[in-house]
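Sample intake sheet
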Amino acid sequence: MITLVLSQSQHQPKPWPKQFFAIISRNTTNVITGKKFPWEANHKWYDYDFLATKNECSVKGWTVTNLMIGKEVWNYNVGTQECVYSTIPVPIVRPDWMVGGDYIGREIINGAECDCWNKEDHIYCEDILSQKTKRVFTPFVPVSLTKNQEDYATFIEGEFDRSIFQIPSYCKNETDINNNRRKGDAPIYCWELEIPIE
């Protein structure tokens, strides 16, 4: 019994590869009202050596993009060619961001048996066979006052063309000063796509 407990406490998730592409289904709930939002389709590119991520979020016909390179962020809508630029205090998460979490057991997620860990209330689950990410639960997202669950349907390790991180021409002149300038009501942030289900 003691040996089993020690073994489980030492068991850790496999760090992310330095580059991957993923297709994700995200479910979101407002933490204040408890209202649920429609599921959101995400395409995610992650490149730790370049300190970059790109997330394309799609809901009900709208797609908006969040591009992070270092500590700089561009949120844009390709359809309207509207862009907002900002800076953040920290870059993207490290590949081993969940290492050191507490092992909490196994769960069947979308038909796959997974090992799961808890670290600072973030829940991370990986397929026991492929050791690829299957689910990430984030308890609180300050900018949108939501919690979300991301289910990874596809997780492809390996290099990809870094031109995917090219900043659109209509974003290149944006600065922090222009942050509050909006051209219309079209969404530009992923969280703006989150309209509560009636």
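Comment: Helices lie at 2-10. Residues 1-9 have pLDDT under 50 and may be disordered.
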